[in-house]
DNA sequence: CGGCTTTGACCGGCGC
DNA sequence: GCGCCGGTCAAAGCCG
């Protein structure tokens, strides 16, 4: 069944720019899940590539797996302003997941801090933040109006700490998947 | 009782 | 200058 595919169909296309440090969880990847043994589905997130797309954030591309947007062009718009040094400059990585549920547990602990309605979309967008002390990684979860089976998760920032939950237990992940599959 | 969700208000950026 | 819009805050309530 395709109820919980959670596939990143991009696996076929190998991103030439993958050499960049685009995997947000690679900081400690050596510790937790260097192989693909743990992290059932989300261990795959390291395969995503980032595209310097200018304005494809809202465009529901038919099969495009994810869009990475980077706020590089307009960070200097404040020329002459008292820049605090490190302005924003945080890349965002978005990828689609085929899932029936919104809450995709990737091993980190998230706290929801907002929810807004999105234009051209009848589903709201949820804003989450990593609850690890000092970790300011954020993510947005959005569901497409067209394909309500598609969930777009946008990560912002990188984690610099180990995973909190015990995702080492692969059986736990399997049970989770079964729970999802029961929908 | 503590952590998390909910939800409306608030804020800064941007276009008109 | 004003209003829209996307993102965040924070108080209150919920739940394990």
From TrEMBL:
<dbReference type="InterPro" id="IPR003657">
    <property type="entry name" value="WRKY_dom"/>
</dbReference>
<keyword id="KW-0238">DNA-binding</keyword>
<dbReference type="GO" id="GO:0003700">
    <property type="term" value="F:DNA-binding transcription factor activity"/>
</dbReference>
<dbReference type="GO" id="GO:0005634">
    <property type="term" value="C:nucleus"/>
</dbReference>
<keyword id="KW-0804">Transcription</keyword>
<keyword id="KW-0805">Transcription regulation</keyword>
<dbReference type="GO" id="GO:0043565">
    <property type="term" value="F:sequence-specific DNA binding"/>
</dbReference>
<dbReference type="InterPro" id="IPR036576">
    <property type="entry name" value="WRKY_dom_sf"/>
</dbReference>
<protein>
    <recommendedName>
        <fullName>WRKY domain-containing protein</fullName>
    </recommendedName>
</protein>
<dbReference type="Pfam" id="PF03106">
    <property type="entry name" value="WRKY"/>
</dbReference>
<dbReference type="InterPro" id="IPR044810">
    <property type="entry name" value="WRKY_plant"/>
</dbReference>
<keyword id="KW-0539">Nucleus</keyword>
<feature type="domain" description="WRKY">
    <location>
        <begin position="99"/>
        <end position="164"/>
    </location>
</feature>
């Amino acid at each position: 069944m395709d109820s919980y595919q959670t596939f990143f169909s991009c696996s076929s296309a190998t991103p030439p720019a993958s050499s960049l440090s685009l995997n947000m969880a690679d900081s400690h990847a050596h510790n937790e899940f260097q192989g693909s043994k743990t992290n059932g589905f989300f261990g795959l997130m390291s395969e995503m590539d980032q595209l310097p797309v200018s304005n494809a954030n809202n465009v529901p591309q038919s099969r495009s797996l994810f869009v990475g947007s980077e706020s590089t062009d307009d960070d200097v718009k404040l020329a002459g302003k008292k820049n605090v040094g490190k302005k924003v400059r945080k890349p965002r990585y978005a990828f689609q997941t085929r899932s029936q549920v919104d809450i995709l547990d990737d091993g980190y602990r998230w706290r929801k801090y907002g929810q807004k309605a999105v234009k051209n979309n009848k589903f709201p967008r949820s804003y989450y933040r990593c609850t690890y002390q000092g970790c300011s990684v954020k993510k947005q979860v959005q569901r497409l109006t067209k394909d309500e089976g598609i969930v777009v998760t946008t990560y912002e920032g990188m984690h610099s700490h180990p995973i909190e939950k015990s995702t080492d237990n692969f059986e736990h992940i399997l049970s989770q998947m079964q729970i999802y599959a029961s929908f």
